[in-house]
Amino acid sequence: MNFTFNFTGTGHRTTTFQTEVTGNGENWTAIFRAPDVSVGPGESRELVLDITPGDGVIPGVYRNFNVRFFWEGQELYDDVSFDFELEVTPTERPPPDFSISEVTWAPDNIEPGTEVTLQAIVANTIAGSGEQFPQVGFYLDDELIEMTSAAFDGEGESVVEATWVASEGVHSFRVEVDPEELFSEQDETNNAKPLALTVEAVAEEVEGFPWLMAFVVTTLLLTIAYFALRLRR
Questions:
Q1: Starting from the edge strand earliest in sequence, which strands make up the sheet with 80-88, in order?
Q2: What is the mean pLDDT of the segment spanning 63-83?
Q3: Residue 228: pLDDT band with limits 50, 70, 90
Q4: Where does CATH 2.60.40.2310 sit in the chain?
Q5: CATH number corresponding to 98-199
Q6: Between 1 and 157, where is the model more confident?
Q7: 66, 21 in Cβ contact below 8 A?
Q8: Cis check: omega of the bond before 90, within 30 degrees of 0
Q9: Which SS3 state, helix, strand or coil, does residue 221 take?
Q10: How far apart are CA 51 and CA 4, in angstroms?
Q11: Residue 129 burial (C-beta neighbours within 10 Å; 0-12, 13-18, 19+)
């Protein structure tokens, strides 16, 4: 969660306010997005404070945070400070929502026997859902070829990989996050993404074929020359 503080300059000079927040308890973090804020005459500025409860925080149990903005006076100017008290009550974490946003492979040109790297981008679209480590399965024709896991700390993306030795033919892959449905998600219809790959064998050249062609062409030219010579006689 975040709190936005608005500053408006009403004096005749630019003032830079330092920030201070106290009340950070165990499993809580409270951090300003900037260490200070400068406000000139007639200007408006914003400063955001992010407060994040950790995994050990009990839902429904509030915590107080004291916020202070201060400017230390110079020479003829008095010190200026503004103090605020915030009461934060955490609620239950929202469930995550995992999805597979992209599946790619490398190298681009695949032949039988090539070791192929399959890469998937797994996303969690729910902010504040906490640390999650869902399993991600790579399947070939519905058979599991590799199981790995993604890692999230709230909303974000995680890249996972699997390897496969290519064989000739048309292959249907599927990458699925949380295949065993261990998580209670907001939407479980977007957990899988298909991929189709076609692997063809490279046609082999007939050994000695260029020499055979050269022999045929040479023989043909000699035959033509022979008959041309006979006709002249």
A1: 36-39, 15-22, 63-71, 80-88
A2: 84
A3: low
A4: 2-88
A5: 2.60.40.10
A6: 157
A7: yes
A8: no
A9: helix
A10: 11
A11: buried
